[in-house]
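Below is our example:
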Amino acid sequence: MTVRGQVDMARAQVFGEVAELYDAARPGYSDALVAEVLGYAALGHRAAAEIGAGTGKATVQFAAAGTPLVCIEPDPRMSEVLRRNTAHHPGVRVLVGAFED
């Protein structure tokens, strides 16, 4: 990995240091915004890819609307919270790693 790649990965994982606090403090998205995004995407029954899903604020809302998701999150600490938050949504698959990989 290049020095730039190491810096980018470090930046991508900065919130993982406080994943639980981040999840508790960060607000979710409005139902209207989620509906707008899903309407625009027009996925039908196709799965969506969510890059940098974090702790799943948007993921949970998309999954609750019936959208299957493949979530890619570079930080294992954030992924742990994401898995817990989406445990009741069987259509959500979480992968830990960089999107580029």
User: Anything to note?
Assistant: Residues 3-96 form a domain with the Rossmann fold fold (CATH 3.40.50.150). The longest strand covers residues 69-73. The mean pLDDT is 89. DSSP finds five helices and three strands in the chain.
